[in-house]
Amino acid sequence: MTHDLQxxxxxxxxxxxxxxxxxxxxxxxxRSGWITSGPKVRAFEEQLSAYFGGRPVLTFNSGTCxxxxxxxxxGIGPGDEVITTPISWPATANVxxxxxxTPVFADIxxxxxxxxxxxxxxxxxxxxxxxxxxxxxxxxxxxxxLYDIAKxxxxxxLEDAAQAFGSRWHGRRVGAFGDLVSFSFxxxxxxxxxxxxxxxxxxxxxxxxxxKYRLQGVTRSGVDGIDVDVLGGKxxxxxxxxxxxxxQFANIEAVTAHRRALARHYFAQFGDGFEAATGAQLPVAxxxxxxxxxxxxxxxxxxxxxxxxxxEALARLRIGTGFHYAAIHLFSLYRxxxxxxxxxxxxxxxxxxxxxxxxxxxxTTADVERVAAAVKTVLxxxxxxx
Length: 386
Fold this sequence. Notes:
alpha/beta, 386 residues, Aspartate Aminotransferase, domain 2
């Protein structure tokens, strides 16, 4: 490694941006004496509700419990089937098991990498009760088609919008319409609270039930009276987290616009002939709907090299990468339930060959140019990647 390269700053694939005003707001909460769920959580939920057109919104301490609670609110349990995608973080399928239901996978579309809605509809059986589509990397599924399928078959929809805060579908915010919609505020998301998430619900009755599941099933009556009529957990968001969320929320439109600008610059740097020349596949060039949470390429399925070789070569050039995601049905937990190689070939290929390139708010166009040049150099080298 040359001296110049050693002095080159390492560029991670993701990095949160927390401004000084937000840091000060967290300090104010810590000094206030009220650090669990309180006024900051209420203020954050009110802002989120307004953002989503007045729909009820509850915040939680993760974007996983949001989905599990959503399934419980929808009455999903043992004997029910829930169809989802094999390309997501394991939580998407794990929550189906957590409520005692059966996960059913449908393969993904090779272009969008979202669930293939033709295959989803073909997987519906008399036991199907719900659908969990994932807006992968912030690119929404075809919402018109999705909800048409759900309506015709009488199914609930839980949108895993973990990566889609700020995304739109034909001008309408993801979360402002539809059925149940779950967002994550984990550290690398476009809006973060460190950890956490929120659930958008349909009405006050659903929100009241979700609130009980959020905090031990407790219903309060007067000053000293409580009752418990459902089995809840401890999933509430703290005011510390909410203070971060409020600071992040104030800048979300600028964050989304900047990410879209970075994505446009990636496409400009790769050029029209990139896919033909390298065999790699770029994401869908959607600058209206996607919030560009991630910028991912699928490597060519050829040659003696591996994805790890490609990622290590970029790391030597001081560029960080990630991969999102491995195919869920190939994990041991799901193999034990009868899933195996060859069942969802598109998901298996994408899960094996996808690489996530740097994309975050503090990035510059010069950073994008550096990454694109490095990717092209590594792809041109003999033996890498496959």
